């Protein structure tokens, strides 16, 4: 613990996942300790950021109300600061989106588009609703949304999502990150929260050792391996628990506040 406390002294910015980290995904519960934590960090001069698989449209009002300094969204593909200034923008090429949709249609899979300011489904049914409703509610439906909008991420949606295998034409362009039994994020091959966070650090003149991050799911893995200190929530994916420098309590039990107190940051 002494080594970890010494390492924590280098922390200048902390990134937080949203679902099951800042708030409970299925209920929307966010403890009163979260706004308090953000205010205490601000008073200590420690910057804060959101690092999420959601696009900016999906960052909830209560999360924006925390006034974080940066938003790393769509798994690192769209990054802005608190003044809405664009830091990084990496939509999927149109040809890649077309190939993804062709593959998913051939696999009898529905899909969801992440634009910069909207989330749109190819159709709305029970399988799609089970995965998406706890996060976004019911989505508008437009299977051709990609024709006139930039797409930062595509989600596959089906009751056989675990059987989907990328075709050869896509394996060097995108990768799958499963986040739900019925769904996977389909993101650029080099895209990740770590990539988006690195763009913020470059702008600030900071190094990975200056970062702390909190998360719980597989799309946090690259960020956990990126550097600095990684804190896993108690109920996290086994790979995240194995990669974490420290494991804290659950959202409901003020895990973030407890970790930051233990690490002497608040």
Can you lay out the helices and strands and say which pair or pack?
Blueprint: H1 2-8, E1 13-16, H2 33-43, E2 47-51, H3 61-64, E3 70-73, E4 78-81, E5 86-89, H4 94-106, E6 110-114, E7 119-121, H5 126-136, E8 140-141, E9 153-157, E10 174-180, E11 183-188, H6 193-204, E12 211-215, H7 221-224, E13 229-232, H8 238-243, E14 246-247, H9 255-262
Parallel strand pairs: 1-2, 1-12, 2-3, 7-8, 12-13, 13-14
Antiparallel strand pairs: 3-4, 4-5, 6-7, 6-9, 9-11, 10-11
Pfam families: Hydrolase_3
GO molecular function, one term: magnesium ion binding
Organism: Pseudolactococcus plantarum
Written overview of the protein:
GO terms for molecular function: magnesium ion binding; phosphatase activity. With about 270 residues, the chain is of the alpha/beta class. It has helices at about 1-10, 35-45, 60-65, 95-105, 125-135, 195-205, 220-225, 240-245, 255-260; strands at about 15, 45-50, 70-75, 80, 85-90, 110-115, 120, 140, 155, 175-180, 185-190, 210-215, 230, 245. A hairpin with a 4-residue loop joins strand 6 and strand 7 (about 120). The relative contact order is 0.18.
């Amino acid at each position: 613990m002494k080594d970890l406390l010494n390492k924590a002294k280098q922390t200048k910015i902390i990134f937080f996942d949203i679902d099951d980290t800042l708030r409970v995904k299925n209920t929307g519960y966010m403890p009163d300790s979260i706004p308090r934590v953000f205010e205490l960090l601000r008073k200590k001069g420690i910057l804060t950021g959101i690092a999420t698989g959601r696009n900016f449209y999906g960052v909830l009002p209560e999360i924006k109300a925390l006034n974080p300094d940066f938003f790393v969204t769509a798994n690192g593909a769209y990054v802005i600061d608190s003044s809405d200034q664009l830091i990084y923008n990496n939509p999927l090429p149109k040809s890649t989106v077309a190939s993804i949709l062709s593959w998913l249609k051939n696999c009898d899979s529905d899909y969801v588009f992440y634009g910069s300011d909207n989330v749109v489904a190819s159709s709305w049914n029970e399988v799609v609703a089970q995965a998406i409703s706890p996060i976004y509610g019911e989505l508008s439906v437009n299977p051709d949304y990609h024709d006139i909008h930039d797409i930062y991420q595509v989600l596959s949606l089906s009751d056989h999502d675990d059987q989907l295998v990328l075709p050869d034409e896509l394996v060097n362009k995108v990768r799958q990150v499963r986040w739900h039994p019925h769904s996977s994020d389909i993101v650029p091959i080099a895209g990740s929260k770590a990539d988006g966070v690195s763009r913020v650090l470059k702008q600030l003149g900071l190094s990975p050792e200056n970062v702390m991050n909190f998360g719980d799911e597989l799309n946090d893995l690259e960020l956990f391996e990126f550097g600095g200190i990684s804190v896993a929530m108690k109920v996290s994916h086994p790979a995240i628990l194995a990669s974490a420098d420290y494991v804290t309590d659950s959202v409901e039990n003020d895990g973030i506040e407890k970790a930051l107190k233990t690490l002497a940051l608040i």
